[in-house]
């Protein structure tokens, strides 16, 4: 069984950084990166593996350590994409470095894990780099790598979804259709890494060690992050459906209800977790904000469909649904302000997509429907409580990511 130790971080370490006072515009909230610390593979592995193999794994991990140190200060404050320069390329390079490292790392857990507990892996957290978590268990390293890979994807999605201005300054900032479509794939990729971590890596870590994992690697946080990625993917799909003349009202309602369901499940996992003040609290508020937004969308489209009925009851239920939608929209503005005000502070990018549409449509349609129904029926006959939303099966699933095949170096011992 591996061991765990939490120690004060080395203030002179290359990866140490100060938490930013502001993280700028946020379309996708990305919890602070987990930061790998240096490891002496030669001393830890000794004569257990050929020197060429120990050197190879050390070089691959050292490359990751250096790249994380370079990227972490930038990732804390996202940038809008430009045609010539963007940190997204650095994020992609770091993701490739992790993908190169993982097949070699997995050799430490092959054949029953003879080498599993020989190396003490150390990671700190951008959210709280005063302490680092050290575990002599290679599965902990695999878990940390998958978590970082998913965070890189969320960071990439955030940069894709920050509106940018076209070549001239006369156009309003916008998010391109290509960025929207690509971001959905990136969200599914992030969820796939997290799902693999939950299903195939966490069970490999002994129960006692799992209880000692940092909170951001616990099952509840990993599941909340996966659901968050899926919820934001559906958000983008709903926005594209709103823009499409071919998308029916029923399709929009289904997407909105599914989005609300994803965010509700995410909140169920994250709401009661002992997350620290600051970044942790901010993460909980982000999930809360997006859940309320999703409910506003779901009740709005549900109300429009109910209003297509020709009965007094259906019109009354439509009015109640639209009133609920307007209340959730008002609540979402308060939740948004609460999220942005928690340190590190943030701000909203210019409105776009489904929320820009709904912010304009909900107050108008809700007011119109309630006024018409008040003319037709007495106030007592208008349903006071919102009707139950339809319960649709969740269609968006994480990518089916599987741990890579073992690097051939573990089989033939060829020197690099």
TrEMBL record:
CDD domains: BRO1_Alix_like (cd09034)
Residue ranges annotated for the BRO1 domain, each copy included: 31-416
InterPro entries linked: BRO1_dom, BRO1_sf, BROX
SMART domains, A to Z: BRO1 (SM01041)
Taxonomic superkingdom: Eukaryota
UniProt record similarity statement: Belongs to the BROX family.
Listed name of the protein: Uncharacterized protein LOC109707358 isoform X2
Organism: Ananas comosus
Lineage: Eukaryota, Viridiplantae, Streptophyta, Embryophyta, Tracheophyta
């Amino acid at each position: 069984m591996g061991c765990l130790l939490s120690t004060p971080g080395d203030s002179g370490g290359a990866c140490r950084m100060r938490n930013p006072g502001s993280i700028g515009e946020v379309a996708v909230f990305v919890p602070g990166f987990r930061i790998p610390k240096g490891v002496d593979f030669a001393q830890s592995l000794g004569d257990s593996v050929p020197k060429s193999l120990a050197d190879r794994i050390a070089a691959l991990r050292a490359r990751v350590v250096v790249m994380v140190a370079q990227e972490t200060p930038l990732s804390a404050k996202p940038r809008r994409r430009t045609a010539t320069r963007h940190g997204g390329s650095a994020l992609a390079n770091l993701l490739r470095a992790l993908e190169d490292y993982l097949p070699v790392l997995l050799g430490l857990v092959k054949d029953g894990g003879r080498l599993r507990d020989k190396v003490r892996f150390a990671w700190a957290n951008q959210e709280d780099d005063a302490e680092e978590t050290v575990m002599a268990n290679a599965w902990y390293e695999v878990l940390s790598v998958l978590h970082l890979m998913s965070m890189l994807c969320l960071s990439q999605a955030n940069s894709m979804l920050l509106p940018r201005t076209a070549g001239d300054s006369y156009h309003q900032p916008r998010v391109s259709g290509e960025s929207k479509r690509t971001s959905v794939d990136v969200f599914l990729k992030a969820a796939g890494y997290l799902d693999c971590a939950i299903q195939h890596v966490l069970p490999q870590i002994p129960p006692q060690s799992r209880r000692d994992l940092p909170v951001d690697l616990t099952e509840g946080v990993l599941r909340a992050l996966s659901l968050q990625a899926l919820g934001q993917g559906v958000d983008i799909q709903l926005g594209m459906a709103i823009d499409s003349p071919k998308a029916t009202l029923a399709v929009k309602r289904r997407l909105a209800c599914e989005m609300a369901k994803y965010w509700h499940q995410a909140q169920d996992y994250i709401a009661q977790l002992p997350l620290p003040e600051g970044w942790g609290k901010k993460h909980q508020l982000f999930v809360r904000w997006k859940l309320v937004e999703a409910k506003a969308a779901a009740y709005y489209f549900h109300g429009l469909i109910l209003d297509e009925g020709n009965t007094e009851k259906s019109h009354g239920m439509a009015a109640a649904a639209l009133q609920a939608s307007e209340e959730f929209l008002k609540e979402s503005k308060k939740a948004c302000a609460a999220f942005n005000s928690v340190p590190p502070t943030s701000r909203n990018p210019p409105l776009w997509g489904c929320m820009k549409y709904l912010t304009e449509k909900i107050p108008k349609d809700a007011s119109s429907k309630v006024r018409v129904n008040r003319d037709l029926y007495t106030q007592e006959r208008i349903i006071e409580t919102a009707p139950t939303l339809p319960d649709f099966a969740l269609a968006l699933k994480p990518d089916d990511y599987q741990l890579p095949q073992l690097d051939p170096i573990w089989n033939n011992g060829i020197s690099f």
